[in-house]
Amino acid sequence: MEDETKIERTPTPEEKLKEDERDVFLREMRGIIEKQQKDIELLKSVADKKALAAYYSRNRQALPTIVNLREMDGKIVVGWKTIKDEVYKDTATNRWIEIQTVQVLFEDGTAKEVPFTDFNRLYTLIPCARKGVITNDDGQIALRLVRQDSGKEYTVGAQYVN
């Protein structure tokens, strides 16, 4: 077996000075960043909440351009609401029983009541391109969507996509 010896290279005074300058620079930058973070937190805590909310609403991230609609029984789902949500403990089996029923609203104006588990198993996702955003006075957002395969347009609440 060969005996390997490591040769340690000692830094020159110029290299050592550069390393010290980098360490000093990094410490200074870290201090500046920490001070700025404290200043930001201070400003947020004393800021006018209404103005801050308006700023965040103006500068929020853009909504995705491709979203998915749900399709059940060959119809596009434009909404749903919970009809029944019961939770109780079965005394015979000592197990929790949950009965959930959802009313699914379709594009043609029809509605269908289905168990929640079936609703989450039986839909297929249809990709659609977002063409516009509609906001009402209450701040609720609806999306104007165009189906990519057929070109049909839909207006659906933002909470009912993807």
Question: Overview of this structure, please?
Answer:
This protein is an alpha+beta fold and 162 residues long. It has two domains: 46 residues; 95 residues, no CATH class. Helix content is 31%, strand content 40%. It contains three helices and seven strands. A seven-stranded antiparallel beta sheet has the order 4-3-2-1-5-6-7, covered by helices on one side. Strand 3 and strand 4 form a beta hairpin. 8% of the residues are buried. The model has no long low-confidence stretch (mean pLDDT 84).
SSE arrangement:
Elements: H1 13-46, H2 49-58, E1 66-72, E2 75-90, E3 95-106, E4 111-115, H3 116-122, E5 124-135, E6 141-147, E7 153-157
Antiparallel strand pairs: 1-2, 1-5, 2-3, 3-4, 5-6, 6-7
How helix-rich are the residues, as a percent range?
A: 25-40%
Distance between the termini: 64 Å
Mean pLDDT rating: 84
Rounded radius of gyration (Å): 30 Å
Strand count:
7
Low-confidence stretches: none
Q: What class do helices, strands and sheet pairing give? A: alpha+beta
SSE sequence, one letter per element: HHEEEEHEEE
Major beta sheet, strand line-up? 4-3-2-1-5-6-7
Shape: elongated
Query: How many domains comprise the coordinates?
Result: 2
**Biggest sheet descriptor:** 7 strands, antiparallel
